[in-house]
Structures are given as structure tokens and as C-alpha cells.
Amino acid sequence: MAVDVYNAHDQERWLPEQHASRRSDFARDRARLLHSSALRRLAAKTQVLSPTSGVDFARNRLTHSLEVAQVGRELAASLALAPDVVDTACLAHDIGHPPFGHNGEKALNEWALDIGGFEGNAQTLRVLTRLEPKVFSADGAPYGLNLTRASLDASCKYPWPASHAVADPGGRAKYGFFDDDTAAFQWLRQGAPEGQRCIEAEVMDLSDDIAYSVHDFEDAIVSEYIDPAFLNARAGHDSLLAAVQAWAGDEFTVDDLGAAFERLARLPSWPRQWSATRRDLAELKNFTSAMIGRFARSATEATQQAYPQRSLIRFAAHIEVPHEIASEIAVLKGVVAAFVMSSDARQPIYRQQRDVLTTLAERLYTSGGQGFDTAFADDWNRAESDAAKKRVVVDQIASLTDQGALALYEQSDAVTAVFHSV
Q1: Into how many domains does the chain fold?
Q2: What is the value of pTM for the model shown?
Q3: Which of 128, 148, 330, 342, by CA, is between 20 and 30 Å from 260?
């Protein structure tokens, strides 16, 4: 299916550029993401389990982002959207997330509440339009990767400010930009319907949900947080479904989720036991492949049926996900949450991670500019208010890998001691 035409407005960059090569603007966007340092750092950031946990086969934020991009690119091609735009958005979707995943996001948000808080998706826009070093204006102003409007908008999961934030099922406020980045947001949303995501962003979000649900379920089985035999025995099943429903939110009833579980459990590829043999690994991998195909195919068919013989690009349509499929995705995500993220055994680890980040933030803030990477030290020196300095601290910590945060935490203890002794 041929990709419909994106116009000059969609392909515009915030800072105009001239290029000698014939590579398309959207292909250039994707290449800039692939070569960015922010993307590389995702290799050492938590997806579900931290790369510092010693589990060497679990996914990290980079492998997750690559898998999301693969799903998104195929969905885009099936729906006649620009594959490079969706691919770029998928690669970028977690690029603003801090060390230790959503747990780290919670810690930074609490520390920064007096300057507007922290939200990983808002930080993504900040990285793409300001912090990632690639393009500067003649007067030295940073433009980040200076992506096209279509790619930036596709990367914006929540196109509204903190004042209009919506709460996810876990109660976290979700929004798309910080007050400091209003100009960038207003530029990328020129001509867009207020509060409406473009379909490319919806495809990115769905691809994230598909990859997150299927791959994290796979990782939880391989790392033996989930025992398929226990699941299939329906032991404590009512309690499990209640936990899944609490994680998934009010969009799904317990009956919805129970029916979705039974549909999944009847599939030939559903995992029924686990002994870590090569055959078990192969069967589990085939389950993940079957689920990605099932979820992507259903959404593609439903969207094509809803918008027959019509261009879907940008704001012309919405991605359609059948409720039954959405409930199956929610079941897989919720089971992982119940057995891994909400596990009592992991709560001390989560508390320790939050303590590391909040203590590190306070140490950097009171260090007199010591301990920062060179780029963030420059931002600190240029900051004209305490609030601006505090935002630099957040930017620095959000950029760190899990191991980098732990290492800087140890170093900052010594730096702080020296500073306060002067």
C-alpha cells in the first residue's frame, strides 16, 4: 500500500536546514535518532528489571524501543502511514525516561514538584528539541535533533500541558511538555486539533503497548517471576484478576479481563509449563510472535474497516483497537505488574532506588555546580534562577543510566562532603 503524501508543513523543521543529499526528511529524522547518545543510553536503563540486577537476558529500554519500532513500522506500512515517522516516534518514545524506569520517574517527580514536577514523556520532548546535541542556531541556541514537525508530533504521546494532565491507572499525572518547553510544543502543534494526537502517535502508543505486554510477559517467565503452571492452575485466580483490574483501570471490568485471560489460555501457543529448556524457550518465543501478530492484525483490520478508501495520515483518522484485543493486552501487562512490579519482595529495591535518586538530586543541587557532566555544568552556570538550576539537576539525573546514577551517587557523597567543609 503506497504511503499517502505528507505536505511541506509536516516536513518543516523548527530551525530551517538545507541538505545536499537526496535522503528524505523523515529518513533523516530516523537516522538522527539512531545515532543519538540519548538512544544509546537506553541500553543501560530499566525496562522491568534493572540492567544492574544481574539478569543478562532481560530487555532494557533500548531493546524495548527497537522492538516497539519494528512493530510500529509494520503497522505504519499496513495503514499507508510514513514508516520512518512512526519508526522515529517509536525509537524516541522512552528517550526522556530516567534511571530505574517508572520508579525513577516517581522519585524525580516528587523531588521537583515545586518547579512543575517530572514526567518522562515531557522530558522526551525536552531531549528531542533542546538537550540532545545536534543542531544549534547561529546565535548558539540549541534545537536538539531538530526533527520535522510530523516526527516530533508523532513522538508526543500526551499533547497537553501539566495543567491539563490526565492520570494513568496508577495515578501518575501524564502530560507532554514542561512550561520551559512551551515554545517547542506550540511550534510542533501548529494547525493541530487541540488535545488530539495524530494517528502516527496513536500507532506508536499501540506499538508500545503490544511490545510492553508481550515481551515483559516473556521476560517475567524466563526470569521465573511468573510460573505458567501456576497461572494455568487458576490458583488465586480471582485475586489475580482483581490485581490486574486495579492496574488496568476502569476501562475494563473484572469480567472483561477474566474472559480475555480465558481466550489467551485457549490459544495453542499459550505457555503451559516452564523448565527453561531450549524447547520451552522456542515455544515461549513463538507465543510472543503469535501475540504481536494477533494484536497488530486486529488493530489494522479494524482501522481499515472504520476508514475505507480514505487517507489516514496525521489527523484524518484514529487507530481502532477492538475492546477484546485491548483487554487481552491489559491482561498480559497486568499479570506482569502483579507478579513483578507489585511484588512485596521488590518493594525494598524500589525504595532504595528512589532514595538514591532523591539524595543524588539534593546533593547536586547543593553542590555549587560540582559533579555535573560538562554540558549540564554549562546549563547550571547559565541558569538565572533557583528553579532553573533545579531543572538542570533533573535534566542531569534523567540523562543517567542505572549504573551511572549509582556511580554518581557514590561520587556525590564525597563531593558534597568537600563542598560543605570549605
Answers
A1: 1
A2: 0.94
A3: 342
